[in-house]
Recover the amino acids of this structure.
């Protein structure tokens, strides 16, 4: 049904110029053909941009780098080697992908406006270089697209040059279909889920095993390749290319703006945005002519500000939910009430015995400038045990966790994990640790707030499967374990702290880890909830997962842990079974306080 | 002094407070007890003006505070020590304290007030010229409370002062809360560690699912079987 | 005179120009946490305003500086209230788009009103060269710009550190959530800060008008340099902006001579990218700002 609707919509869009133009422009001035080619070209570029800017949330204002490379590749290969633009375009796309990877590698380390600035800077550099090396590019004088070479007339389908403008419409539309299809495929794949996860919360995405750099790089490369193809065609269509028009910042802004107006991160939004804005601006330019130099830019600027202020989610993002509400969606009810007790442990189940070491950290040291946050700490986690980590605030417990999960690289020492086949590995990144079977939660909960509870857990499940159906099944199973079944369809942002803490654990469990790192999952919970959390962790342990838990809730630590390590000022000051730790004088002085010692005695 | 009547409030589509009525009289120590997500912090945020109630009334000395911004609430003599300390990390402790007395009324006698507050918290005096962000968690909590006292508030509200602190530090923080109470400041406190707060509270309210389900003196609540079962796990 | 000394003198004075343009940008980012992509267009508006005041009312550009700075304070505060304030809690993307939209609209409005012609304020005094201790020869206008940028930066730093309002402004930057609990009206602070940042642009426009002509895209010409300066110095750091501006001024001056005139921007963009990648917080920045 939705598919039929989509195909119907596309067919209608394609038919529109062929039906509309003869009606409004019987003399065939070509003005309206030009407008529709422009719409298709910009819609295609906006779709391509949206893969990076919308799905991945990386607001690049330098995408015309690839539009320009595509244009120059098509024209230069044609001029120098007589290559047809179809092949030139593919070569240009290959170059664009390579350059995208080279550019993205440094740029993607930056966030928010800084990423945007760096893409603008690259665009400027490339434009200036294109002007400077005039022997190759023709410099600022530009490069005409050759129509005649000697006596050979390079015209027709092979050369993408036509006397009949309708053929341009067909190619432009074809490019739009390609970009749209690519965008749809990305959104519905695991890559699409990962991109959204990275956009929402990069750290949490890395914790579920997403290689954040790799997925953003993939989005950057796909977007660049598609943009380049469009650039090749558009360069030939315009008949002339020069650095100012090909590597243009205003064009890059326009493309991004169309996607925003239509709806960032929606598949069809970029098309709607282009369809709305291009005709208004082009028509204004056509009617008022040169007298209105700057008018279309003014219109773009004002529309952009208006859209941002009134509907920042764009046409599709604002109208879609409104339609859904009109068609009868239930209002969010109280989420706290819908949390259930976690499933009880199956009666009579025996706890598996504590086995061989599974994770070993040796002489871990981490320095931040002059501060030693972790100082020569060695810990061992055995299979099937719960290892408690306690210590005063600021003692370096969370730093230790970051070292044990690859979020920080140690200054000295190392961490190794035993794989099911018995071999040991020392991963160097969060996704490396995830691959080795280590999952973690965060002290400050990090749900993907724009996604539902189900989708949040699915992101964990994707670690073990590429199939969305399978991920969905795992998510439901895990939700039952932690007592979130009633909230599967709720938005993660509507959860209370207690619910969010459970979601944090659920997402980690969905990765089917062998080692689970829990960072203060009980902080902020009341005693009754703490009791439930203790039961849940026991169940997780009994199902064969080994657990390391940072906790301040002493009753829980004592009840749960098989072994406790105490950290103070970055150093390991004591370790042993709970009963010993409670009596250890150094621990009492640094952490527990006399009162606790008396109470425990 | 402060009175809440049938307060309703929430975040977007989620209603957290269904119907909260409570009052704090001058000189009292009042505590709100409740489970996670029951709406304790939301109640404080609504009183501060950080959150617009969707129903009910908040009055201070009989005056409706509807539509008042957080600065205007501070003007009424109500100050909050927020959860998680929330200091200004790249300023000195002295500057943090000065900001506590930002409103003109407090600023007028800022030097005298600084002396009074430092007399109450001698350990803060030792740290005056240190960057607030470089202090330990416990020291930061002390500065946060001292900063709240700088406004010379008639009502000081604490939001989870012991959250995330090690047991030894929690004990020190409670000593400071006791000192604030002893200085005669009216206090409204929300705290997970209910054993201590109920011992010092003149009165307490139990909040469940955004509704007040019970209220009594602190020690009486501590002995109540429902409170014991639900919040002490015994 | 030694060519190298001359180039250094030119570079340092150019740095003064860049600093003057950059302090408003870095202040706004540091406090309001918004990168104002319309910053260059504000300068463009200021240059046109100075040109109009000079040609229509015969006002000396340096005399126009004060009223222009005051007018720009209100313009900036208004822009913050109308466009930035509603988006304070929105995604950074949306904020970028909003300021990009304002910039695009302003630049094109100028194109419609004034066409693409260059409009210069005629002040021969400012273009005259003066001898600098016999070492180099520099234009008087550049010296004025240099002096104004130092005085303005010093005054801003003193204001932020020594006054109650300044302290409140820094408090808002460091903890948006706690500031209102102190009784600070955060939205008012944002409007004031945006106003001060824009006021700096107004001041800069008046001082630079005798040296640079007004044209619709003059903003993007300066703003990219200002971004480079601000990132180099550390986003939000006023001292950093001055140092960054001096470095970029020197780079532009030396690279224009020793590398190639049309590649001098490439050189400092490469420095910019290098800084972003190696030390994204900049020379004086606080980590976590990026």
């Amino acid at each position: 049904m939705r598919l039929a609707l989509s195909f119907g919509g596309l067919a209608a869009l394609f038919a529109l110029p062929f039906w509309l133009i003869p009606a409004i422009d019987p003399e065939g001035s070509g003005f309206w053909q030009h407008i529709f080619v422009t719409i298709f070209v910009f819609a295609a570029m906006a779709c391509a941009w949206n893969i990076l800017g919308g799905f991945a949330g990386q607001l690049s204002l330098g995408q015309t780098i690839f539009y320009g490379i595509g244009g120059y590749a098509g024209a230069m290969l044609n001029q120098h080697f007589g290559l047809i633009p179809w092949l030139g375009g593919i070569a240009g796309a290959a170059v664009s992908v390579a350059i995208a990877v080279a550019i993205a590698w440094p740029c993607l380390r930056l966030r928010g406006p800084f990423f945007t600035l760096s893409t603008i800077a690259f665009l400027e550099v490339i434009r200036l270089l294109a002007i400077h090396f005039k022997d190759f590019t023709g410099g600022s004088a530009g490069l005409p697209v050759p129509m005649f070479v000697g006596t050979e007339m390079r015209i027709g389908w092979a050369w993408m040059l036509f006397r009949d403008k309708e053929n341009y419409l067909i190619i432009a539309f074809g490019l739009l279909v390609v970009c749209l299809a690519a965008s749809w495929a990305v959104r519905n794949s695991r890559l699409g889920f990962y991109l959204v996860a990275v956009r929402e919360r990069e750290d949490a995405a890395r914790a579920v095993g997403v290689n954040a750099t790799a997925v953003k790089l993939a989005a950057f490369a796909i977007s660049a390749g598609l943009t380049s193809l469009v650039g090749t065609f558009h360069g030939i269509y315009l008949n002339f290319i020069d650095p100012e028009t090909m590597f243009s910042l205003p064009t890059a802004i326009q493309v991004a703006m169309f996607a925003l107006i239509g709806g960032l991160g929606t598949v069809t939004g970029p098309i709607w945005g282009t369809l709305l804005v291009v005709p208004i601006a082009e028509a204004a330019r056509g009617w008022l002519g040169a007298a209105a130099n700057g008018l279309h830019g003014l219109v773009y600027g004002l529309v952009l500000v208006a859209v941002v202020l009134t509907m920042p989610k764009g046409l599709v993002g604002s109208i879609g939910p409104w339609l859904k509400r009109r068609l009868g969606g239930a209002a969010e009810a109280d989420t706290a009430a819908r949390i259930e007790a976690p499933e009880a442990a199956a009666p009579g189940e025996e706890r598996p015995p504590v086995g061989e070491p599974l994770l070993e950290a040796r002489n871990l040291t981490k320095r931040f400038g002059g501060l030693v946050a972790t100082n020569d700490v060695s810990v061992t986690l055995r299979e099937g045990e719960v290892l408690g980590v306690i210590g005063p605030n600021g003692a370096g417990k969370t730093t230790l966790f970051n070292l044990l999960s690859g979020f920080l690289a140690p200054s000295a020492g190392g961490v190794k994990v035993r794989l099911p086949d018995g071999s040991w590995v020392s991963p160097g990144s969060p996704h490396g640790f995830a691959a080795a079977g280590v999952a973690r939660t965060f002290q400050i909960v990090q749900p993907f707030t724009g996604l539902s509870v189900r989708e949040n857990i699915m992101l964990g499940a994707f670690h073990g499967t590429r199939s969305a159906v399978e991920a969905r099944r795992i998510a439901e199973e895990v939700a039952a374990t932690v007592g979130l079944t009633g909230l599967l369809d709720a938005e993660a942002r509507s959860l209370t702290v207690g619910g969010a803490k459970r979601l944090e654990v659920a997402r980690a469990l969905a990765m089917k880890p062998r080692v689970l790192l829990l960072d203060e999952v009980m902080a902020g919970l009341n005693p009754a909830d703490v009791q439930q959390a203790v039961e849940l962790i026991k169940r997780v342990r009994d199902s064969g997962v080994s657990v390391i838990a940072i906790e301040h809730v002493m009753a829980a630590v004592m009840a749960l842990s098989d072994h406790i390590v105490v950290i103070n000022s970055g150093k390991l000051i004591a370790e042993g079974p709970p009963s010993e730790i409670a009596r250890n004088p150094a621990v009492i002085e640094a952490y527990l306080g006399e009162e606790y010692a008396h109470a425990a005695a | 002094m402060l009175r809440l009547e049938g307060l309703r409030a929430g975040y977007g589509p989620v209603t957290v407070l269904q119907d909260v009525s409570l009052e704090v009289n001058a000189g009292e120590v009042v505590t709100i007890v409740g489970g996670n997500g029951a709406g304790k912090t939301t109640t404080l945020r609504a009183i501060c003006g950080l959150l617009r109630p969707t129903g009910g009334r908040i009055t201070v000395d009989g005056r409706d505070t509807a539509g008042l911004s957080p600065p205007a609430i501070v003007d009424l003599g109500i100050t909050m020590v927020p959860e998680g300390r929330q200091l200004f990390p790249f300023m000195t402790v002295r500057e943090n304290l000065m900001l506590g007395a930002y409103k003109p009324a407090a600023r007028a006698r800022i030097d005298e007030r600084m002396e009074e507050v430092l007399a109450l918290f001698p350990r803060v005096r030792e740290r005056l010229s240190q960057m607030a962000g470089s202090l330990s968690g416990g020291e930061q909590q002390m500065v946060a409370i001292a900063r709240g006292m700088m406004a010379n508030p008639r009502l000081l509200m604490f939001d989870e002062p012991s959250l995330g602190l090690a047991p030894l530090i929690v004990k020190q923080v409670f000593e400071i809360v006791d000192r604030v109470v002893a200085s005669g400041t009216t206090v409204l406190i929300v705290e997970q560690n209910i054993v201590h707060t109920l011992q010092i509270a003149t009165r307490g309210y139990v909040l469940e699912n955004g509704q007040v389900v019970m209220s009594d003196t602190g020690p009486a609540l501590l002995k109540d079987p429902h409170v014991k079962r639900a919040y002490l796990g015994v | 005179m030694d060519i190298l000394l001359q180039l250094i003198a030119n570079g340092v004075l150019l740095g003064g120009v860049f600093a003057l343009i950059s302090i408003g940008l870095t202040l706004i980012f540091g406090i309001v946490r918004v990168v104002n992509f319309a910053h260059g267009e504000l300068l463009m508006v200021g240059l046109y305003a100075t040109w109009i005041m000079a040609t229509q009312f015969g006002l000396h550009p340096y005399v126009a500086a004060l009223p222009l700075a005051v007018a720009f304070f209100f313009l900036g505060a208004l822009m913050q209230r109308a466009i930035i304030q509603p988006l304070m809690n929105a995604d950074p993307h949306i904020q970028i788009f909003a300021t990009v939209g304002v910039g695009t609209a302003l630049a094109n409005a100028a194109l419609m009103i004034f066409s693409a012609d260059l409009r210069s304020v005629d002040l021969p005094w400012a273009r005259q060269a003066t001898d600098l201790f016999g070492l180099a020869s520099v234009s008087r206008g550049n010296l004025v710009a240099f002096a104004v940028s130092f005085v303005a930066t010093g005054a801003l730093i003193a204001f932020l550190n020594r006054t109650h309002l300044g302290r409140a402004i820094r408090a808002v930057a460091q903890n948006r959530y706690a500031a209102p609990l102190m009784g600070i009206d955060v939205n008012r602070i944002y409007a004031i800060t945006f106003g001060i940042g824009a006021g700096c642009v107004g001041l800069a426009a008046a001082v630079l008008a005798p040296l640079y002509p007004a044209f619709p895209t003059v903003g993007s010409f300066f703003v990219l340099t200002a971004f480079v300066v601000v990132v180099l110095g550390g986003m939000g750091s006023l001292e950093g902006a001055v140092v960054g501006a001096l470095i970029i001024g020197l780079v532009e001056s030396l690279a224009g001579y020793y590398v190639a005139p049309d590649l001098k921007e490439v050189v400092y963009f490469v420095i910019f990218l290098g800084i972003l990648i190696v030390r994204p917080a900049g020379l004086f920045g606080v980590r976590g700002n990026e």
Notes: The radius of gyration of chain C is 19 Å. Chain C has eleven helices and two strands.
